[in-house]
Amino acid sequence: MNTALLYHLLDVDPADGPAELLRRARASRRLPYLVLSSLARDDVRMGEPARAELRRARARADHYARLARDLARATGIRAIRGLPLAGYYPPGLLRPQNDLDLVAPGEAALWQAVVRLVTDHPVERIEVTLLGDRPHHTAVTVHWPADDPLVDPWYRVRLVTAALTGDGAGVPVRPYLVADDHVECLIALAEEGLTRAFRPDDVVDVAALAAQPFEPDETAAVIAAYRVAPEAAALLDLAAAHTPLGRLAPVRAALEAELAPEHRRRTEAAAAHRLPARHGSLLRRTVLRHDWDEARLLPAPDATLLLTPVADYLLTDAPGSTTAAQRTAAFAALHHWDARC
User: Fold this and answer.
1) Within 13 Å of residue 162, how many CA atoms lie on the same side as its CB?
2) DSSP class of 288
3) Cα angle: 223, vertex 226, 229; to 5 degrees
4) For 222-267, what is each residue's pLDDT tens digit?
5) What DSSP assignment string belongs to 231-284?
6) Do the strands 303-307 and 155-160 form a parallel or antiparallel pair, or are they unpaired?
7) pTM as predicted
């Protein structure tokens, strides 16, 4: 894990120098911080604007770590994916952390954490999604501006009552993730492949994990049990084209036997009826309802409302798909509910 790997991943000739490497990295909002930290570790000359950008990125990562630690003590949530992966990076190399992923042990803990975030930060947007039905799982993402919102990504904290949320089709929600820390990181990273293409920074994550003590057959079996064998194989194949897989090479070999069974399971699952995710379209922010342990569903004409401890929403099958008539009916239902309370 060094600057040479970044030149290779971003297809930059080292002769073109670090300025070209950073320019290429800026095509992504994630990679500039990784590149800047790697260049700083190599003592490459950089001016105050670049150093300030790197300081803000480090402060962001430190803030996320404090948030996760404080919320874990207060509510029992735990970090997944990005923050744990950052712990495997070499000293001085900054893993890009545009967002913070947290898993809550239940809905009450999730909303307790959300209320704390809204109380302590200038939160401007709160997104809510319900996954499945009877029982459903809840995902909440809160956003607030970075110190320089024109230059840096906004802070984004995502809290979910399920560790792995699947793809809404062939791979179901898996509420719990229990394995060795480095295996959990690999599984959570593979899970990303269900909803997006793998990126150069994912290759760097694999390089960070490559020296960990993976037991090939056991690791492959756990990955298969969590239904992400094809994604893990694809991720490791991509990484192998750029960096040695180390102890992950035999894991990739062991995964080969798991691919066909998983593809069969997904084909069978696709034929079964699955309830789509329901997305919350914001109706109003509310005074914090500190005494609520969970959200409440409120039926309305041709719609369902979701009342939460921090805001009220109209549930839809797709983000932003509400009509003016639906919103009018939703507000009428809210006013009726307010009058009864």
Assistant:
1) 19
2) -
3) 45
4) 999 999 999 999 999 999 999 999 999 999 999 999 999 999 999 8
5) HHHHHHHHHHTTS--GGGHHHHHHHHHHHHHHHHHHHHHHTS--PPPEEEEEEE
6) unpaired
7) 0.92
